[in-house]
Specification:
The chain is α/β, with parallel strands linked by helices and 164 residues long. The chain has one domain (6-162): Rossmann fold, CATH 3.40.50.300. Helices cover 49% and strands 18% of the residues. The protein has helices spanning 18-29, 36-43, 51-74, 88-101, 114-127, 137-144; strands spanning 6-11, 32-35, 79-84, 104-111, 158-162. The longest helix is centred in the middle third of the chain and has 24 residues, at 51-74. This is Cell division protein ZipA. InterPro entries: P-loop_NTPase. Keywords: Cell cycle, Cell division.
């Protein structure tokens, strides 16, 4: 039987650097990178105009993503998912995906302060003006109101990264 791949996924507030870190980790691990933003843009172009739109459309792609990722992991590929694991429910989805297959996982928790995240969002608005509509301080506080820091009790293999 082939050795299973390992799944890497991220937790961190908006602006913590999840996408940047996921790209670097995929390169370092020679892993397949799967980006939620890319999947949503490809399947639902110009259809995400609010946080609720994002939540609903993200939920719709999850069954397809799960099957795809499990197939990749079953072949022995390492997979880095640039999808948020910012609530217990989101993390439970990742953990179930791994448990069903019996593969290893690593949850990388980018534990940055609100100040650090807001500074990185300000920089991102400059570098990616197309995101300026959503990368606001108001949106940061709205999205952060749902954030739940991971705990060991959830059963995830957590690697915590402090600071920037």
């Amino acid at each position: 039987m082939a050795q299973l791949g390992k799944l890497f996924f991220f937790c961190g507030k908006m602006g913590a650097g999840k996408s940047t870190r996921s790209k670097a980790l995929a390169k370092q691990q020679q892993a397949i990178l799967i980006s939620e933003d890319e999947w949503l843009a490809a399947h639902y172009p110009q259809q995400i105009n609010s946080f609720d739109d994002y939540i609903n459309l993200s939920r719709q792609i999850k069954p397809f993503i799960k099957q795809h990722v499990q197939q990749l992991l079953a072949t022995g590929c390492a997979v880095v998912m640039d999808f948020p694991a910012n609530t217990r429910q989101q993390r439970s989805w990742f953990l179930t995906l791994c448990a069903e297959l019996g593969c290893e996982h690593q949850l990388i928790y980018l534990n940055l302060s609100d100040r650090q995240c807001l500074a990185q969002l300000a920089q991102r608005r400059i570098e990616q003006p197309e995101r300026a509509q959503f990368d606001t301080e108001t949106m940061f506080h709205h999205v952060s109101s749902y954030f739940e820091a991971p705990s060991e009790a959830e059963g995830a293999n957590i690697q915590q990264c402090l600071g920037g």
